Amino acid sequence: MVNYPNGKKMTSHTSVTSFGGRGMALEEDINLTNTYYLDMDRAVIHKKPTPVTIVKVDYPRRSAAKITEAYFKLPSTTDYNGIYRNKYIDFEAKECASSTSFPLKSIHEHQIRHLDSVLRHGAIAFVIVRFTKLNRTFFVPAEVMIPYIQALDRRSIPYEWFEANGYEIAYNYVKPVDYLRIVDQLYFQENK
Hints:
Layout: E1 2-3, E2 9-10, H1 26-39, E3 44-47, E4 52-58, E5 66-72, E6 80-84, E7 87-96, E8 101-103, H2 109-120, E9 124-131, E10 136-141, H3 142-151, E11 156-158, H4 159-165, E12 167-168, H5 180-187
Parallel strand pairs: 7-9
Antiparallel strand pairs: 1-2, 3-6, 4-5, 6-7, 8-11, 9-10, 10-12
């Protein structure tokens, strides 16, 4: 059992991502971090549900309804949104199996348009990219990534670009993806 600073306890049956196995669990790590932020009353940021239309449901028993056919209503925008320090936050999270580049097919045009739109309206928008083979996670401000993608004449972004233009998010057991540390650094510095 783990005792957190907020007084909550995590038992052994609760899902915890180990350092070695965290490559496939970016979303889980962000969800754990967001729960910590919420418990500490630091921010309210949630994963957006994917809108689906249910077409067919089997009812073998009332208590055992099973969806057997469903379709996406619309392309979803980004993965997460919420509020922090009176500012709207919106971001996308992506995992990348390559150790040399991030394929652009991983982020869709409608997601880029959405990030650009919320930026124009004053939001803090960014992309979190985890290179799973390297166990490295980067925070990239949307205002840096969008123009780069729009000017790019290739199908991927080199890993070195993330090292030069992103901010590495160090793994932390309590806050596995502590992205608000970087948000504070970039958007809430005094005398900026």
